[in-house]
Amino acid sequence: MANLLLGVTGSVAAVKTPLLYETLTRRGHAVKVVATAASLYFFDPAELPSEALVLDEDEWPGRREGRRWQRDDEVLHIGLRRWADLLLVAPLDANTLAKFANGLADNCLTCAWRAWEPKRPIVLAPAMNTLMWQHPATARHLRQIASDMDTTPPNGLALDELLVWINGCLGRLTIVEPEDRRLACGDVGVGAMANVESIADRVQKILDERSA
Ligand SMILES: Cc1cc2nc3c(=O)[nH]c(=O)nc-3n(C[C@H](O)[C@H](O)[C@H](O)COP(=O)(O)O)c2cc1C
Question: Which one, of 73, 112, 119, 77, lies nearest residue 96 by Cα?
Fold first, then answer.
């Protein structure tokens, strides 16, 4: 049993959030969902227990009413990082991938990413249109993330080779490969988020290896 921080971003695949939450909790894990504002277009937050869901406004309690931060107030993204054993971002959209790679920290999820404890594992499950996935920015951003973590990947790797390199060589980062099929937009190609059970299996494998 582990504490899992599940980041959810603005891809159509966020419709799977209640199912992914249910799958992970059924396996005995405690799960907190950090949802970006865009992701809420794709699933109904009422389908998750309210105590499991973290929204950006939760970082700033009372801000709209003019209340200011007080010394004993929690800094939520730091509290989440302390709580979590593993960060899973599923789906990871192109926008948040770019933010992660460039160190932007403008919402709860990107702040948790930037403040992440370096020894704790991260699992990313990208989901985007095929041309977004194949855009040179994707490989550039994944290379940047890998370089920031440990070792710079060798030059000249194609995107699929880069994923193999990251999954084989970087102990603490796993990319769950997107699938090749008909996408929600009607295009056919690579970019669909991997299915929920295989994402949960990858998370479980990492946790099992770490506790062995
Ligand atoms: C209907 C719809 C579907 C979208 N699907 C995706 C997607 O699958 N992958 C992606 O990278 N962006 C997708 N986007 C674009 C993102 O939602 C957009 O870039 C947003 O700003 C992401 O914000 P976030 O990263 O903070 O969640 C979609 C947008 C819309 C309106």
Answer: 112
Would the CB of 11 count as within 6 Å of ligand 1? Answer: yes
Residues whose CB is less than 8 angstroms from the CB of residue 1 and which lie 6 or more positions away in sequence, other chains included: 28, 29, 30
Written as six digits, the tokens of 126 are 């990208």
Structural domain range at position 174: 3-211
Ligand 1 pocket, mutate which of 16, 93, 106 (most atoms under 8 A from CB): 93
| DSSP-assigned letter for residue 179 | E
If you search the block for the tokens 């040179």, which residue do you land on?
Answer: 136
CB 193 within 8 A of CB 178: yes
Indicate which atom in ligand 1 lies nearest the CA of residue 92: 11
Residue 89 β-bridge partners = 7, 124
Residue 130, helix vs strand vs coil: helix
Q: Domain holding 204: CATH number?
A: 3.40.50.1950
pTM of model > 0.90: yes
Query: How many domains is the chain partitioned into structurally?
Result: 1
pLDDT digits (tens, 9 = 90+) for 102-134: 999 999 999 999 999 999 999 999 999 999 999
pLDDT at 184: 87
Q: What is the DSSP string of 70-108?
A: -TTS--HHHHHHHH-SEEEEEEE-HHHHHHHHHT---SH
First to last CA, the chain: 13
